User: What shape does this take?
Amino acid sequence: MPIETERPLPDPDSLEVSTLFPLESVRRLYGFMYERRSHPPATDEIHQFIAGQFGESQSEAMRRLRSLRDCFVVRRYRDGHLHRYELVGWKPVHADQMRLNLSARVRAQVLAPQRCAQCGKNPLEDQVKLVVDHKLPLAWGGGDEIENLQPLCEECNSGKRDFYATYDPYAEQIRAAVQQEEPHGRIGELLKALQGNWVPAELIGVVASMRQYQDDWQRRLRELRNLGWDYENRVVRATGTRAISEYRLIHWEPWPEGSIAAAAKRKQR
Ligand SMILES: [Zn+2]
Assistant: This one.
């Protein structure tokens, strides 16, 4: 079976894996297979692992393995009287699906400005290739709606991926923050989720603008102070040229009953 070779296997604790497999038993099995790549487990060991972890039967174990195989190539081979299962790589079909599930029309619409939304390079003059980027990654609760899509050159896109990967451990909390109805709630929950770490302004802006666009999310952030919240701000220069503004939560308060915006306005007066 062909394997997607360019794409390394994701870390068992990564966001990618938790997005692919909502079932914990499948995620754990992936982790087990991942750890045992150099010494692939035999059928019995897989049964024992699943039974030991979840008390599930042998047929359940094989069902979990089939779920893994929806996304990954697991090679089965003979070793004496045993059958071993080796986690080899991504299934190409899945890699293609993961790449982008957008219609040609939507892609054309997003790429129409013919300019990278981050560095401004364009294909004609700069020989860059533009790709469709999700402002808020899919795995963090972003969607395929046009407001969440932008053209990026491949270089900016891969830079962004690396940068956002820093926050993958908080993916679950970020997904929860995005669900908040009000921008104040999304901003506040994001800062809380990052547990006092510095959060880039760009990320706050993107999360604040999910559900409805916020042209002044900084103001929403300031309004949190009316509710007794406190945070600090700093500006760092990441790559020598581009200044990045960051925020860090110092103190938070429980959300008021009802509308946060209304409560913030009341307290201001
Ligand atoms: Zn770019």
